[in-house]
Each structure stands twice: as C-alpha cells, then as structure tokens.
Amino acid sequence: MDFPKKVTIVEVGPRDGLQNEKEFVATDTKVELVNRLVEAGAPKIEAASFVSPKWVPQMADATEVMQGIERNPKVVYAALTPNIRGLEGALANGVNEVVIFGAASEAFSQKNINCSIAESIERFRDVARLAKEAGVLLRASISTSFGCPYQGEVSVESVLDITKRMQDLGSDEIDIADTIGVATAAHVYEVMSKVTEIVPKERVAGHFHDTYGQALANILASMQAGISIFHSSVAGLGGCPYAKGATGNVATEDVLYMLHGMGIETGMDLDKTVQIGQWISDIIGRQNASSVGRAMIAKCATN
Ligand code: HMG
Ligand code: MG
C-alpha cells in the first residue's frame, strides 16, 4: 500500500465545529479552543468565519476571536470569506489564509450562499484577486462534492467543473468536501483521482463529515489517490446550518489515532487533542463524538 509519510491536518473545530451550535459559545471559549489546538500541534486552524451574522449567528464574533488568540507564527490561521466584506474583515484581523466556499450542486449553492454557482465564481473573482494582492493564502472549498441534501446525487463532472473554475481563480489549495457525509470509499477514490488530474495532489484536501460513519475509510481512499491534507474537527464537532441532519466532521482524535497507528506523521499530540475534545464537549454540553476520545478518556478513568 502506498500511503504518504506525513499528513497535514487542518483543524476545523473552531469554525465548522461550532458554527452550527444553537447556544452562543462564548468568545473566550472559542479563543481558548484555538489556543489549545495550537498547543496540541495543529499546523493550520480554521479559526473564524467572516460571514453574515444573519446567516450564521454563531460566527458573529470573528473579529473578537481573531483579536483574542495568541498568535504562533508557525501556524496558519484561516477564516471563511464569502465576499469582499468578509475578506476585508479577515485581512484587518491578520488571517493568513482566506477561504472562498462554493458548491458542486446548484441547490446547495443557493441555500448556503444565496447565489448560483456561476454567480459565486464571479463574486469570488474579486475576493481572490484582493487576497493575492494582500499576500495571503487562498483556499477554495467545494461543498456537496459527493452528494447534496437538496438535489441528491452530484456528478463527478460538476465537481471537476467548479474545481477548474476555483483553480483558475488562483486557489492555492482546494477542498473536496462531503458536506453530508454520504460518500463511500470507491466514489471518493474516483473523485479524488480525477480532481488530481487537474490540480496537483499536494494542493487538494479532503473534508469529510462523518454522518454515515464513512470518513476514516474515505480518508484512506483519498490517501490511496495521493491526497495528504485532511480536515477534521476536535471531538467530531460540527455540521452546516444549511445541510440539515449533517453531523460533524470526522474527529481529529480518530484521524490522529489511525494515522499514527499507520506510522504517518501529523505533528499533533493525540493525548492533548483528546483532552481538548473532552473539555470542549463538556463546555458545550455535547457527548464527545470521537470514539478514540471516549475510549482514551474511559481508559484513563479506569487506570
Ligand atoms: P445575502 O443575503 O445574499 O447578501 O447573503 P447581502 O449582501 O444581501 O447581505 C445580507 C446581510 O448580511 C447584509 O446586512 C450585509 O451587510 C450582511 P443588512 O444590510 O441586511 O443589515 N453581510 C455581512 N456581514 C458580515 N460579514 C459579511 C457579510 N456579507 C454580507 N461577510 C452571504 C450572502 C454570502 C453574505 C450569506 O449567504 C452568508 O454569509 N452565507 C454564509 C453561509 C455559511 O457560512 N455557511 C456555513 C459555512 S460553509 C460550510 O460549512 C461548508 C464547508 O464546511 C465545506 C462542507 O462541509 O461542505 C466549508
Ligand atoms: Mg464542513
């Protein structure tokens, strides 16, 4: 089997993980979550979202979060920026990587960002240009790459089509996202293999929600297709407010356990990540959704 020696984890817990929480999570908690994840070795963190607070109230304190965190110069702090206003907010607050986010399905594009795929690309054009001028990294996320909560099946061609358009905007990295966690391994292998025919594999990331429990298998399938960047969320927190029923991202703890067990480096500390996962789950009053996290906490308690 041909797997990478090193994988880059993009920790999305503070953004994807928390954005769907109904009760407002205190800014101090969000700041502490980011700081603790850095302490655990996360190389890249989605720390905030400069989106409309009418659309996603939980992310309304993006500025305060960015201002509150202790900055580690080795860490990439990323934030979602759907339009120029979002980009300006991100740049004013020292974000290192901005994320434009579109979809492979028309229906999801409309529900999530209130415009068609073609309109979104036009909107992103200026965001991308200004991000490049400002010298920050530009990442593009493609939702519903394996299925859509509104339209159902999504063709590989539509994923490739928006991937090309995102690449033409100058994206440094492209995330292929399973928003509702429906993908299975062969489908993932096929999509990732085709995407890497148009985007160098070092610049493609897998973003898997774990709704159907397939995310680890999908990470393995992606690695077999040459991918070595994966998004995960501590304690498996998360979901998208515009994808009803979709649960969290694959838990960072579960990904670390699998990768470290396979001898693949991540630079992250599993024990520390497990502690963070339980801490944030307790604070927001959710069951820890990481199997590895629960197992390791239970083992500690019995020893
Ligand atoms: P719109 O309503 O078409 O745009 O929303 P608008 O320009 O008419 O703005 C509406 C209001 O929001 C206005 O306020 C704007 O000023 C304000 P009002 O005049 O009514 O008082 N506004 C903003 N405020 C702060 N920051 C901004 C901003 N922009 C406008 N940047 C818009 C269009 C894109 C803004 C909206 O649809 C939006 O914010 N959507 C974000 C949805 C979102 O964040 N979804 C979750 C993240 S994506 C995700 O989770 C998927 C991912 O994880 C991958 C996967 O799993 O698939 C990445
Ligand atoms: Mg997501």
Structure description:
Its EC number is 4.1.3.4. One of its GO terms (biological process) is ketone body biosynthetic process. It comes from Oligella ureolytica. The chain has 303 residues and is of the alpha/beta class. The protein has a single domain (8-302), classed as TIM Barrel, CATH 3.20.20.70. It has 12 helices and 8 strands. An 8-stranded parallel barrel has the order 1-2-3-4-5-6-7-8, surrounded by 9 helices. Helix 4 links the parallel strand 3 (76-80) and strand 4. Helix 7 packs parallel to helix 8 and helix 8 (185-198) packs across helix 9. The N and C termini lie far apart (36 Å). The model has no long low-confidence stretch (mean pLDDT 97). The structure holds 3-hydroxy-3-methylglutaryl-coenzyme A (HMG) and magnesium ion (MG). Residues 16, 177, 179, 207, 209, 240, 249 line the site of magnesium ion (MG).
